[in-house]
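## retry 2 of 3
previous attempt timed out at serialization; input unchanged, resubmitting
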Amino acid sequence: MAEGKFIAYYRVSTAKQGISRLGLEAQQKAVRDYLNGGNWELIQEVTEIESGKRSDRPQLAEALRFCRLYNAKLVIAKLDRLARNVAFVSALMEAKVSFVAVDLPTANNFTVHIFAAAAEHEAKAISDRTKAALAASKARGRKLGGLREGGFGQPEQRLVGQRRSIQTRQAKAQSFAADVFPFIAEMLNAKMSLRSIAAYLNAKRIPTARGKVWTATAIKRLLKR
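## retry succeeded, writing output
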């Protein structure tokens, strides 16, 4: 039984299908039949009219943005065609958004990883070749760099780790700011106060990057990024 918040993503191959709703209504019905009966909320429905010649998926990016904003799960009608699409698989993996496929409810992020196994295999092959080259170099007597327990490099190692942690948090905050800014920009153009904007975001149940409620101060900090 479905529970929680969902963002629906539909895909049709041509503009003609989008206008005639050929295939789209079937996807919508599949999603609603799956959600029916549970404690769920379908917050947004996004439709991609996709040309076979295009590799970008702007509406998928929009759906994933909504998922991040609302802490919602992406729901799609059919996984079989989408999972074979490199652009879809790549976007879904990078977004780190939970999803459910109506035609294969047991599928998860691990399933998506399987479909991307070929690319991962190639990356591993490159890594293995690099390690083999380093091992061969060491066997020839070349001294390889490295940090030793208790050695001079240990404080530097901790410093590098701290810097990377800060960079990760900053990157996450910047990404979230990019997701939520379109909402805030519209309200600023409408001459809404920072307090009113915060109240609107809270009413929409869009949390801050740290999962907190919005305040006028939080809005001001975000605008300074």
